[in-house]
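Help: read this over?
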Amino acid sequence: MTSSLWNLRADRATLDIASLAATLDLTHPANGLGITRALGASVADAQFLGISIPGLSESGQHSITDRYVRQEDLTAAYELTGDCPLHVDARWSVCDGTSSDSPFVAVEVLVSVRTWVLDSLSQLSVVSRCPAEEVLHSIGGEIDVFATIAPAAADHLEFSEAPAGPGCMLLRLPESAISYVEMVRPGDFQSEEIAFQAPVPQRAGILHRLSVEHLEKGVILRARVRGVFVPRDNDEQIAVEQYQAFVESPLPLAT
């Protein structure tokens, strides 16, 4: 049997393979993955693929009912109480593509949400924050057309609506040989938001709002977001290839 890539102790998971090093505190899923190394390059002051649901990260509002690792997957189950009772399953998965012609390493989060009341509303977002020398956004409904988003001066990260696009952003990390691409499947995508924070190197935040707001009793809604680290050279072309492969990949059968 293949051993797991993740090391899980209590509610803290670590990952340390040749292409990626990361930690995740399951009690604070909104903070996401603390990735410190990707494709041989150091990554500092960064959090990726955090799950933001009102109530999920508030003290006393949720409990972890299960957590386990299975090969490249790390899964946690959460129960939320209060005004919006929900069951949330989150699975973080790793894909090492360093042996391919266009090397990459990817982390994907699949979120499944269900409720046991007749009708419910839930705002689900995936948030990443990291230093960025430049932020590019796919525009005009075309995944292979990128434009730079001009940073706004701010002393803290305050999200605002990003230009309309198919759901793919590319962040070029400062003084680094790698870039980070974050993408959402078209059926899961509702809107994107962007934030900047000075000083240099500027810090950028990207928020993908997902289409799982309206819940009915007994219905499971799923959404999937992928973050990919790619070489800085030719990063736009690799981003297009990765997005197309992601869209064409089948949704996992279970969380």
Observations:
- Helices lie at 235-248.
- The mean pLDDT is 83.
